[in-house]
Amino acid sequence: MPISDAQWIVAAGVAGLLIGSFLNVVVHRLPRMLERHWQQDAADLRGEAVPVVPRYDLVLPRSHCPACGQGLRLRDLVPVASWLALRGRCAACRAPISARYPLVELATAALFALCVVRFGPGTAAIGAMLLAAALLAAALIDLDTQLLPDAITLPLVWAGLAINLTGVWVPIEQAVTGAMAGYLSLWTIHHAFRLATGREGMGYGDFKLLAAVGAWLGWQPLPAVLLMACASGASFAMLGGLARLRDPRAPIAFGPWLAASGLIALFTQPVLSEWLLGG
What we know:
Number of strands: 0
Number of domains: 2
Number of helices: 10
Order of helices and strands: HHHHHHHHHH
Low-confidence stretches: none
Largest sheet: none
Radius of gyration: 21 Å
């Protein structure tokens, strides 16, 4: 019997919970994997012997409590449910487990379900899930480390161009133009700011992330994405400074605001572009 739209939405939500659990691993481990790689490269350049270290990637070592090192059992890895059953604490040492883990799983589930609601079952929804998951992971890594890894941003650019070869969202010409416009717009702003102030305004990872959004959605929504990201990031910095929650001179991660604005554009196209362009 055919699967109903409601069943597809539920299936997407369940898949989102599982992918969200994996995104927690990516967010935690990928920066540490990159740091290890950079240290090994630096040792090679200095002509030093590279120490043999245990394997560390997205698969090994197996998931464990960061406080006591106890390996997690299968029943400890059920998205959201395990955290609730354990009341947010490690089963072995009772150390607190961050609420961000189930929140990321729930956010991914909600985004995946929304992809099916917005695009219907099919290629567009699957592509939207991939984009949403990558943007969420990139935003969280940037929030933690102020780093947007090439391992996420560059494949995302190519994936956007590839999916638009068949015009899933925009013709390939608009996807290529979007990737170019996304990168060059922030590159120009960055260098203009540096010439005017002598300081770095943003990182090259931000250029690549906006290029990825352009590759997926075309050039039309980029002005709105950039405007929303700048306005929300500036508001956060200003309000945080006024409330004395952060040093107003401290840099802020721009990636989360770009990612959030890109997600808004994903789910509101083409209305967003038509509104912006007065169409």
